[in-house]
Write a structure and sequence with these properties.
Layout (H helix, E strand, L loop, with lengths): L3 H7 L14 H35 L2 H25 L3
């Protein structure tokens, strides 16, 4: 059983002729309606992402995270230095 992505990429089966209604004004209107719905859904989805990231960035303190990353990096360097110092040569 194929997925919707496969159907969307490959299109309809080539063994069947396209339906007669696909070239009528009603067929074109339904395709334009589907395109408009797709655009509306994508705008809503990207808008929600934008609002969510805006909320996260308001809580994000770059100085705090820089200090944390520097502390972890410094600790790693100290541990590596101690390990190197106590290794037999």
């Amino acid at each position: 059983m194929g997925s919707w992505a496969t159907i969307a990429v490959h299109g309809p089966p080539s063994s069947e002729p396209p339906p007669e209604s696909s070239l009528t004004p009603l067929g074109v209107a339904s395709m334009l309606l589907l395109a408009a719905i797709h655009v509306a859904v994508m705008v809503a989805w990207l808008g929600l992402w934008t609002l969510g990231l805006k909320q996260l960035s308001a809580r994000f303190d770059p100085q705090l995270w820089r200090r944390r990353i520097d502390a972890v990096g410094g600790a790693v360097l100290v541990v590596l230095g101690i390990r190197t110092a106590i290794q037999p040569r």
